[in-house]
C-alpha cells in the first residue's frame, strides 16, 4: 500500500520552534495533520540547535525530538527524521564550528565527518525503540552545499560524496538497526552536469530512492501550470531514478512535492495535486507521497521567498485549504488499496556518458533534449520508462522491468 504524509512545518516559530519548544502547540499541529487522514510526517531537527559544538549533542533537544515522535504516535502518525539541517526553504543552518574562523569542508574534513556521524547515530539511537519511527534521512537536500549555485560551496568529488553518504548511512544504521535510512538530494543530482552528487548515489545508496519534485525549476515556466511536463514532473523523476537503480523493485519515495505559486496559481493547486499524485502512482514501486508542507509559514517571519509562505495543506491557523482537501481525498481513496500499475512497456534510451558520474545529465533537465522527448511520449499516452544506454542491449534486464520497446530521442525503434 502507498503511504501518504506531509513534511511538518510548525505553525509557531517555523523550524525555530526548537528554540522555544512547546509540546502543546506541536500536538495541536499534529491534530490538524491527522484530520487529513495522512499516515506519516517528516520532521526537521535544526542541526546547530541540536549540535552547537562539535562534541556537544544537547540532551534536551534530543528529548524534545523524542517527545514530538511520541506525540505523533498518539495520533497514528509514523515519523521520518531528517538529520543534517542543513538547508530549509532558502535558509542554511550549519553550526558555527564549520564556518568563518572554523571553516571546514562539510563532506571531506575528517573531524566534521566524525561529528556528523555521531550526531546521526545519536538521533537514530534515541528513537530506535519507537515503533512509529520510520528511519533517518541523512539531511534535507544537503547536496546543495557541494556546488554552484551555492554562494560558498564545499567542493567534493563524486567519489568523495559517495564515501561520505555511505558513512552517514552506516551511522544511522548503527543507531537504529533495520530501519529505513536514506538520503535526499535536490534535483541538481539529476539535472546538472558535474554536480558531485549523482543519480547513481540517489538510486543505489540507502534503503530507497528519494525524489524531490519542484516545478519552479523551469518546468512550469516552459510548459504552464497544467502542461504534461508539469503534471508529470514527479512521475518523470521517479522513472528517471529507475534507470540507475540496481534492482527493478527498489522503492522510490516522492519525499517532497508541492504547488508553488505563482507557477501553480493557488486556485489550481488542488487540480495540480490530483494530477501529480495520479501520475506518480502510475509508476511502479512508489513507497509513498509526502507533500510539502503541512502548514503555511507565518507571514510575521521575514525574508522567505514569496512562494515559501503559502505551500501548506493548511493555513497557519490550521484551517484546511483546498489543496489539503484534495490530498486528504487522495489518501482516503487509496487507503487499503494495492498499488500495482501495469508495466511501462516503452522506454526512452538515455545516454549520459559514464553512468556513475553522469557527466552529460543536463539533457535530463527541463528544456533538455531528453526531458522534452520523454514529455512528448508521455503526452501521447505511451507511459515511457527510462533505460540507460549501457543497459539497452541487456535482454534480461529489460525483461525484468517489463520493457518490450525502446526508443531513442531521434525516434528510432527497437
Tell me what the structure shows.
- Strand 1, helix 1 and strand 2 form a beta-alpha-beta unit.
- The chain is built from 14 helices and 12 strands.
- It is an alpha/beta fold.
- The mean pLDDT is 97.
- Helix content is 34%, strand content 14%.
Ordered list of secondary-structure elements with their pairings:
Blueprint: E1 3-7, H1 23-34, E2 40-43, H2 47-50, H3 59-74, E3 78-84, E4 87-88, E5 91-92, H4 110-127, E6 133-139, H5 158-175, H6 188-191, H7 199-204, E7 209-213, H8 219-223, H9 228-231, H10 233-244, E8 252-257, H11 269-280, E9 286-291, H12 322-334, E10 346-350, H13 369-379, E11 385-388, H14 395-400, E12 405-407
Parallel strand pairs: 1-2, 1-9, 2-3, 3-6, 7-8, 8-9, 10-11, 10-12
Antiparallel strand pairs: 4-5
The sequence of SSEs as H and E is: EHEHHEEEHEHHHEHHHEHEHEHEHE
Whole-number tally of structural domains: 2
Order of strands in the sheet with most strands: 6-3-2-1-9-8-7
Task: Estimate the helix proportion, in percent.
Answer: 25-40%
Corresponding CATH superfamily of the largest domain: Glycosidases
Mean pLDDT: 97
Helix/strand-derived class? alpha/beta
The largest sheet, given as strand count, sense and whether it forms a barrel, is: 7 strands, parallel
CATH overall fold name of the largest domain: TIM Barrel
CATH class of the largest domain: Alpha Beta
Choose one word for the global shape: globular
CATH architect. name of the largest domain: Alpha-Beta Barrel
Q: Work out the number of β strands.
A: 12
Query: Distance between the terminal alpha carbons, to the nearest Å?
Result: 34 Å
